[in-house]
Amino acid sequence: MQDENNDLIGRIYETALSPGDWMDLLDTITGWTDDNPPGDANGAPMEVEQLIGHLERAVRSSAYMHALEDRTQILNSMYNQMPWPMLMLDEQMRALECNPAARQALTQAPIELLPDGTLRFADRALKEGLKRVHSLAAGRHTQLLASQRDAVTLLCLPVKKSDAPGNIARVRTIVWVLAGHSVVTPSAESLKAIFPITHAESRLLHLLCKIGNLSQSAALLSISVHTARSQLKSTMAKLEANSQVQLVSQAMGHALVQAAQPPALSQTPEHTLTLPDGRVLSWFEYGDPSGRAVLTLDNLGSALPDHRLFDEWYRANGLRMILIVRPGYGLSTARADMEFRDFGPDIRALCHHLGLQRPPMAAYCGGGPYALCAAALHPDLFDRLGLLASTVPIEHFELDKLDRIHAMFLRIFRKDPRLFVLVGRLALRGVRRSPEKYLARLAKSLCPEDQAVLNDPDLLARLIERMHASHFQGARILIDEYIRMQHPWLVDLKQIKVPILHWHGEDDRIISIGSARGLAGDLPNARFRSFPGLGRFMIYKVWREFLTELLELPAQPAPKRQRLSATIDTR
């Protein structure tokens, strides 16, 4: 028995060093939970507290290495080589760290760095602009903010949140302060790479950025002033600039943004709305911008499906698909202690912002609980509800029908939630480092149709790309949502008045067909349909047909309300 204990302990610390092997640890701990009687000091299996102690030490070790990796990624050589004052800002927009240039330069207006890390701005508009970037209300891309009253520009880079502990997890935005002589002139080669201009035009533009004088630039290039004017006029037309000053400003700004821009994702633009309580809610739009609006929520992890695959079909059918990003994913601000029933007011705020009146809601997988609770608690929010492969309340879960990985996680959670959180933290680092390895292992437990999705190179690449984009604020939200699914929803689903279309795959190895039928029995006005051979990723097979049938359902008339409130409930 002592040898078994030693093997388990060894596996724990090996996983801290090689997080990609976390599924072997999950398997080992699950076996331990299945036959672990109360232990003693004479070689019996470890007590839960002993196991938790080893896991906590392993997580700390893993987290230390995780922090070093993320720090290297965030502060790579490009950032360290930039000669301008640089600040790493935390959640409260205070400087956690700064480079020597910032300490030397930011001692007075227009921007002053105080001893406690607070920034003092002479231009209030510049401060408000930075707040908007910092809250992600302006998106996740590198942005330039220029002061209209002071000769200063801020180059702002929102940072993907690290799940590692310490200061690196608190960094939200990196800011470079550009002013006067601090600005480095972009090379002719970089300008030609950024803008659709000729080699000769890029050389002239480089000198104009550097010395500002057309005659001197022409002399240095050994060309006539007439030729220089012709090149300048051509460049201004291509960049749609109205003056030489505007041309130089535009060239410098774009070059600086390109220099600090992280690798771009080929994602549809993520729109944002600042809610009355200061949180940011984001969403994506696909299809026809003037078409019929349909709301949708995606899966646990917010990585499926990739709606770009359906964009042409949406346009052809006059649909404006609005994918709402749940709190903690993408740019939507995480909300502490959130439950499924709390999301309705956020959806209402978005509908109010977009001018939508009772749009249909089509929810997939982990989006189902949020949509169901919103429909039950806010009967005037949707005119119909679609559920595709939806997650179900905990009372309907069939543990013996779960796929192997999710079943192991659930058994560990029921043994002690602390075990689930600790193993989950090791797992998140492993998935981040090697998502292909995890998805290949997961596929082995799924039905053939689901395996075909995960074995498709294009669909797999899209899944991983969306996963990285969704976890911009860190991946810990996955643990939070999984725990949320183990709690009662505390909502009476029988109060739902709108018609419901509920589809589920009969070969779903994660949410069994029996679980789905249990949920369907709780739903009034529901039209349930099951699909032989299909599983968790059935959305790629039936999404078009599902939306078509959903939109053909007779809509429920709007409920009578005693009084319309002029304010948006954001509780």
Low-confidence stretches: 37-44, 562-571
Secondary structure class reads: alpha/beta
Strand count, sense and barrel status of the largest sheet are:
8 strands, mixed
Give the overall form: globular
How many helical elements?
22
Q: Fraction of residues in helices?
A: 40-55%
Can you give the mean pLDDT? 85
Lateral arrangement of strands in the main beta sheet: 9-10-12-11-13-14-15-16
Instruction: Tell how many strands the DSSP assignment holds.
Output: 16
* Share in β-strands: 5-15%
Radius of gyration: 27 Å
Oligomer: single chain
* End-to-end CA span: 53 Å
Domain HTH luxR-type: 194-251
GO molecular function: hydrolase activity
Protein name: Alpha/beta hydrolase fold domain-containing protein
Keywords: Hydrolase
Provide keyphrases for this structure.
571 residues; alpha/beta; 8-stranded mixed β-sheet; 5-stranded antiparallel β-sheet; globular; Alpha/beta hydrolase fold domain-containing protein; Sig_transdc_resp-reg_C-effctor; Tscrpt_reg_LuxR_C
Task: Write the topology of this structure.
Elements: H1 2-17, H2 22-34, H3 48-74, H4 77-81, E1 86-89, E2 95-98, H5 100-105, E3 107-108, E4 111-113, E5 119-121, H6 124-134, E6 143-146, E7 153-158, E8 173-178, H7 188-194, H8 199-211, H9 214-221, H10 225-239, H11 244-260, E9 271-274, E10 280-287, E11 292-297, H12 311-316, E12 319-325, H13 344-354, E13 361-364, H14 368-377, E14 385-388, H15 404-415, H16 417-433, H17 435-443, H18 448-454, H19 457-470, H20 476-484, E15 500-505, H21 513-522, E16 526-531, H22 539-552
Parallel strand pairs: 11-12, 11-13, 13-14, 14-15, 15-16
Antiparallel strand pairs: 1-2, 1-8, 3-4, 4-5, 6-7, 7-8, 9-10, 10-12
Helix pairs in contact: 1-2, 1-3, 2-15, 2-16, 3-16, 7-8, 8-9, 8-10, 9-10, 15-16, 16-17
